[in-house]
Amino acid sequence: MAQTILIPIDFRVASLNTLKLALESYGDTRVKVMLMYSEMLDDSITELLFYDSDKIIKSLTSNEFKEALEVIKNRFEATLWGDVNILLFHGNTSAAFSHFAKGNGIDRVFIPKSYQLLPAKKAFDPTALIRRSDIPFIEVGWKIDRSTTEYEQLITLFT
């Protein structure tokens, strides 16, 4: 059976470099990929009643991000097993992350070494939780120029 890997993202094209490097490390070995966006859950009853994870994901996904993800899916078609899923994580402890990862069958997490996730207003960078959890993780690094546009970052995924 294929291994399942998890990549934290911030819905910026640059955060998909972690996915690209993770897939390159697997070569032709098949892997199942899950992308994770971390945000605090609203405590309003109305918000909870009408909570829709698909709607949240859709509102956060830019056209550049969609294109970048398609580039990666096409480039690593032989490595990817199934579709790339995007999950929302709402916990704020390493134990909550461990339960989330185990519940989703995660074998390994890849986190960026030098890239700082820049989530939106209600979201947060889960890297510290991942490091403290009991789920195996690998740090991958690359150089990022924050002054480049999303489109320019999309082009770098081709290289």
Tell me about the largest β-sheet: 5 strands, parallel
What is the beta-strand fraction?
A: 15-25%
Low-confidence stretches: none
Number of helices: 7
Gyration radius, rounded: 15 Å
Number of strands: 5
Report the principal-axis shape.
globular
What is the mean predicted local confidence, pLDDT?
Answer: 90
Structural class by helix and strand composition: alpha/beta
Specify the helix fraction band: 25-40%
How far the N terminus sits from the C terminus, by CA atoms, comes to 30 Å
How are the strands of the largest sheet arranged? Answer: 3-2-1-4-5
User: What pattern of helices and strands is seen along the backbone?
Assistant: EHEHHHEHEHEH
List the helices and strands and how they pair.
Elements lengths: L2 E6 L7 H11 L4 E8 L6 H5 L3 H8 L2 H13 L9 E5 L4 H10 L4 E5 L14 H6 L4 E4 L9 H7 L3
Parallel strand pairs: 1-2, 1-4, 2-3, 4-5
Helix pairs in contact: 4-7
Explain what the structure shows.
This protein starts with a strand and ends with a helix. The longest helix has 13 residues, at 63-75. The protein is built from 7 helices and 5 strands. Strand 1 (3-8), helix 1 and strand 2 form a beta-alpha-beta unit. It is an alpha/beta fold. The mean pLDDT is 90. The radius of gyration is 15 Å and the shape is globular. Helix 4 (63-75) packs parallel to helix 7. Strands 3-2-1-4-5 form a 5-stranded parallel β-sheet, sandwiched between helices.
